[in-house]
Specification:
The protein has 143 residues and is mainly alpha-helical. It has one domain: Helix Hairpins, CATH 1.10.287. The chain contains 2 helices and no strands. The chain has helices at residues 2-55, 60-139. Helix 1 runs antiparallel to helix 2 (60-139). It is rod-shaped. The protein starts with a helix and ends with a helix.
Length: 143
Amino acid sequence: MNRMRRLKPVQDLAAQDERKAAAQLGENVGRVEEAQQRLGELLAWERDYAACMQQGAVNLSELQSYRLFMGKLGEAIEQQRAAVAEAEHGVSQARTHWQTKYARHAALSKVIEQCRKDEVAAAERREQHQLDEFNLIRTQPKS
C-alpha cells in the first residue's frame, strides 16, 4: 500500500486540476453563448430598422440619419462577430486544456488502480505462502 499512498496526493491534485479546467471550459462556453446572444440581438435590430425604413417615405434628413445609424450598427455587428470568434477560440483552448488534465487524471487513476491490484495480489501470494508453510509444518511427522 506504500506506493499507492504516495501516489494518492498526486492523483488528488490531478483531479483538482481537472475540475478547475472543466470550470474554466464552462465559463468560456458561457461567454460564447452571451456573445452569440448579443450578436443575435444586433442582427434583429438591423432587420427591424431595415423593415421600418422600407415601410414609408422619409425625408433626406431621416435617410441620412438612418444610413449613419445602420453604418454604426454594421460596425457593432462586425465587432460582435469578432467577439464571438474570439470566445469560440477561448472555448477551443479551454477544451484542449481540460482534455489534457482529464487524460492525466485518468492515467494516474489507472496507475493507482493497478498498484492496488498488484498489492492485493502480493498480499494474497504472501498469505498463500504462509498457509502452505503452515500446512507443510503440520503434515510433517514429528520425531
